[in-house]
Write a structure and sequence with these properties.
11 helices; alpha/beta
Length: 275
């Protein structure tokens, strides 16, 4: 399905809608850093059999806006997603976030716990501090976006994919082109500089312990980006959470194990909250 762009909180937010809007539950999918809703293309067809799906491109990624006036903090991005859902008339939903998207999901749970039925955290980034002061200061330099571009080019899309996928044989041309597409817009590099400047760091333990939303934590056994030890710590700090580890899997769960992820999400969302 073709996506839609809505002006929310001063920037354009792109989203894709799949499944039956009259299905029993809505799931909001949030991608990770340097990614987009493209990363869920293998998972969505499974989920759409049972759920109404809203896949969001978090600003400044994918087809969403890259406005220089937008505040790219996790709190503000989470608030922006909540405003989008309010505009769409979705009052109650579950949220699934991969990597950085998991941190946005956790912020949403703090901001609007009454709206979120359950949360699914797919190798969620957690416990990362704010950028160092010297990097924040450097982000104000006019040529800093050039250094961001050059830094990302060192690894490249293929190198990045090799670091997040356990089995490199899964990498194909469609995947490479899909993840590379957003970098065709040069504005992304200025926006990434702003994200570095505005990102306030992941939620501290005391904030995590305030979250009462039931959460399913799905982790790759061989995740090099957010190691399994982070998932184990997160399970301890979230009061109502359960960790499931997928064997022979890296960081990019929606690409590597879409069917297994679907089965775990379906079982979790269909289970009674008091079970």
């Amino acid at each position: 399905m073709d996506g839609i762009r809505e002006m929310i909180n001063g920037t354009a937010i792109y989203y894709e809608e799949n499944g039956d809007p009259d299905a029993g539950q809505t799931i909001v999918l949030l991608h990770g850093f340097l990614s987009s809703s493209f990363s869920f293309r293998m998972l969505v067809p499974f989920l759409a059999q049972d759920f109404h799906i809203i896949s969001v491109d978090l600003p400044p990624f994918g087809n969403s806006g890259k406005a220089k006036t937008f505040q790219y903090s996790y709190q503000n991005i989470a608030s922006t997603v909540l405003q989008l859902l309010e505009k769409l008339g979705i009052d109650r939903f579950s949220v699934a976030g991969h990597s950085m998207g998991g941190q946005i999901a956790l912020n949403m749970m703090l901001q609007a716990p009454e709206k979120i039925y359950k949360g699914v955290l797919l190798c969620s980034s957690s416990y990362y501090a704010r950028a160092k002061k010297r990097h924040i200061v450097a982000s104000y330099l006019p040529f800093f976006p050039f250094f961001v571009k050059r830094y990302l080019a060192k690894t490249g899309v293929v190198g990045n994919l090799k670091s997040v996928i356990h089995d490199p044989g899964l990498i194909n041309r469609e995947m490479i082109q899909g993840y590379a597409r957003q970098f065709e817009d040069p504005r992304i590099f200025s926006s990434l500089a702003l994200l570095l400047r505005h990102r306030e760091g992941d939620l501290p333990e005391e904030k995590l312990r305030m979250i009462q939303t039931p959460c399913l934590l799905l982790w790759g056994e061989y995740d090099k980006i957010v190691p399994l030890r982070i998932g184990k710590k997160l399970e301890k700090d979230l009061n109502h959470s359960k960790l499931i580890v997928l064997k022979e899997t890296g960081h990019l769960l929606p690409e590597e194990r879409p069917q297994e992820v679907y089965k775990e999400i379906k079982a979790f969302l269909h289970a009674r909250q008091d079970s």
